[in-house]
Write a structure and sequence with these properties.
By secondary structure, the protein is of the alpha/beta class. Helices cover about 25% and strands about 25% of the residues. The chain has six helices and 14 strands. Helix 2 packs parallel to helix 4. It is globular and about 60 Å long. It starts with 7 loop residues before the first strand and ends with a strand.
């Protein structure tokens, strides 16, 4: 298993589209199975890539005080096997994998890492990080004499996230505060809160080499969940949120706006 600070690098001849995925919760009674399977077929048919950001499995084990294991639709070992099967056709489209707090329940008890098991089966364990993944994505083709003018390199940080808060604003504040700690960041991807959003915060950069003070922007994407409303969320009076419709992150790789991130939803 590689260290969190080991950078993941990818190169593509042109721009790409990325779907950030978290909080699938396969095994939960509320898991949106039909929508999840339809989405994976869509990815197969498109030239798109995936970021997997934790809680792919619900993993309702006995030691968790928040989950009744008898409410699980699929036992954890079967859910792990099913997720491997679901991801097999799109394994070459996966850019990185980070574990979530639901998978973390198991290796807290007995040091078994369900997310790493899935990656090992798919032969992508080099793309797995336990806590946070730092990723460099280069888009565009290098041409002789252009000094990489037609190539764009993007810096990503991917972490499942933590904390609660009923309102979306709490998650926005937490994510942007964390994003401000990572110098050179272009895009931060988080999950956990089941509240999908996209924000575009900015940082002030003092460039001592050129003597210029400038603003630089980055993008924060919080993933939607793949859970229908009910169960734990209803019992705890959590607010319903948009589900099963992930944002698309578009990375430009050529042209005048060589380095540009746009999102559609």
């Amino acid at each position: 298993m590689l260290h969190d600070l080991d950078l993941i690098s990818h190169e593509f001849p042109g721009g790409i589209t990325i779907y950030p995925i978290a909080d699938v919760h396969l095994g939960a009674m509320e898991h949106a199975e039909t929508e999840w399977q339809s989405f994976l077929k869509k990815v197969e048919s498109e030239n798109a890539y995936l970021i997997l950001d934790g809680d792919l499995l619900n993993n309702g084990i006995r030691s968790c005080k928040f989950v009744n294991p008898f409410d699980e639709r699929i036992r954890p070992r079967d859910a792990k096997r099913m997720m491997m099967k679901y991801l097999e056709p799109v394994k070459d489209r996966i850019l990185c994998v980070v574990t979530g707090n639901h998978e973390r329940r198991t290796f807290k008890d007995d040091d078994q890492d369900l997310s790493y098991d899935i990656c090992t089966k798919l032969d992508i364990e080099h793309l797995y990080r336990e806590n946070i993944a730092y990723m460099r994505i280069t888009c565009g083709q290098r041409k002789a004499g252009d000094h990489n003018k037609n190539r764009a390199t993007y810096a990503f940080a991917v972490t499942h996230g933590a904390g609660g808060g009923i309102y979306t604003g709490a998650a926005v504040n937490r994510d942007e505060r964390f994003g401000n700690t990572i110098d050179g960041l272009d895009c931060l991807v988080t999950g956990h809160v089941h509240k999908g959003f996209v924000t575009k915060p900015a940082k002030i950069v003092i460039d001592t080499r050129t003597g210029v003070v400038r603003m630089t922007n980055y993008t924060v994407v919080s993933c939607v969940s793949w859970l229908n409303y009910g169960g734990y969320a209803a019992r705890n009076m959590l607010l319903p949120a948009h589900v099963c419709d992930p944002q698309a992150i578009h990375l430009c790789g050529s042209g005048r706006d060589c380095k540009k991130i746009t999102t559609t939803w």
